[in-house]
Amino acid sequence: MGIGYAVLATQAGLSPLETVSMSVLVYAGAGQIIAATMLAQGASLVAIALTNFVVNLRYFIMNTCIYTQVEESNSALNIASAHLVVDESFAMFTLDKESSIWFYLGLALFAWFSWIAGAIVGVFAYDIIPLIVANSFNISLYALFVAILIPPMKEDKRIFLIVVITGIINIALQYVLGSNWSLVVSTILGAAIGMKIMGYGKKDEECGNKCISGDVVE
Length: 218
Known about the structure:
Largest sheet: none
Number of strands: 0
Radius of gyration: 19 Å
């Protein structure tokens, strides 16, 4: 995915330094691919920033969950590690019995360096990658989200319903707002509708227990 991002960023007109710098300073896999794709489509910087803000809001929740699980941490370590959270390192840490902040930092740093290395490889390999392979990276983001969505959709039909509703909203809004802004609005509306469908926000004991047990994050 890191190599795929670099190819998309290069195709969007970013220099090798800009491409690798985004992996160092931003470090949000899906967000970076979205940014590169929107740049290629001529989107404004405001639209790109707002889209990434909405798409990456989950990182606030992920960091909060990590800091409630780790032991012997402090504000300085929390701030230093906040930049490093991504879906993969979050999943590996929360599913492991280890609760050390140092274990998490080692895990997250390894993932970060791997992503940066992927961007560097992609920058240098762009000129030698066959055109058909380079163009195939345009669907890498879709493939990533499909891989993430399919397992939970199979287990819970409500998630399938939320995905379908959000997709329909996004397609409909493209005719009104354009493809870039429709993504932002459909994400917010889809999340709001999803909360109602999943039953979050109910003032009953069942939901309270669910929130306390951590099922909301899951």
